[in-house]
Structures are given as structure tokens and as C-alpha cells.
Design brief:
Layout: H1 5-39, H2 45-61, H3 65-84, H4 90-106
């Protein structure tokens, strides 16, 4: 498939805008988890799961492999622990916090 230079330029602009939006998006995920974990509020776990899922997919779309992989690990962790019903035990909270740290780290070297 031949991609025109105009299309390449437009894709580069979209990628640039996406990357610029990531600190806010990842920050929102972190703030939501902080709120959920402090209050043991299971009602917002689906929202957290959806946010991680969205970052995983959009990261892959924009060729941000590390971000996508980190978000996917977080997404699956949340899903698994929601199903097991142990989302609020200390070990799980620590695991999610570590995965969030990896997610934050993944946006520090964006291309």
C-alpha cells in the first residue's frame, strides 16, 4: 500500500496529539485508582478497567508498544482480580500500584 506524503503528515499530527494527551490520560487512571483504593469503591472498577483497555488499544494503534503492553497488563490484572473478588487485599493493591508505575514510566520516553 502506498501512503501519500499528505496522509503521512496527517498521521504524524494525530500521533503527536495522541502523545501530548497521554500524561493527562495516564494521570486520570492513577487518580481514579487512588480514589478507588482509598475508599474500597468497587463501583468504579469497570471504569478503571475500561480506561486501561482504551490505553492498551490506542497505544497499539499509535505504535506505542511499551505503553500498550503496560496498559494491557494493568487491564488484565484488574479483570482477573475483579473476577476473583480480591481487588482490595493489600497484595493486589500493591500489584496494581506497581503496574500503574510501569504505565507512568512508559510515557516518559515517548516517541
Amino acid at each position: 500500500m502506498i501512503v501519500s506524503s499528505e496522509m503521512e503528515r496527517q498521521l504524524a499530527i494525530l500521533k503527536e496529539k495522541y502523545i501530548a494527551s497521554l500524561p493527562e490520560k495516564v494521570g486520570s487512571v492513577c487518580m481514579l485508582w487512588e480514589s478507588i483504593s482509598e475508599d474500597n469503591d468497587a463501583t468504579r472498577l469497570e471504569e478503571l478497567h475500561r480506561m486501561a483497555h482504551s490505553l492498551s488499544g490506542s497505544g497499539a494503534t499509535y505504535d506505542q508498544v511499551q505503553l500498550s503492553q503496560s496498559a494491557k497488563k494493568l487491564e488484565l490484572c484488574i479483570k482477573d482480580h475483579m473476577a476473583a473478588g480480591d481487588i482490595f487485599d493489600d497484595v493486589t493493591k500493591d500489584e496494581i500500584t506497581v503496574l500503574l508505575d510501569l504505565l507512568v514510566d512508559s510515557i516518559s520516553t515517548l516517541q
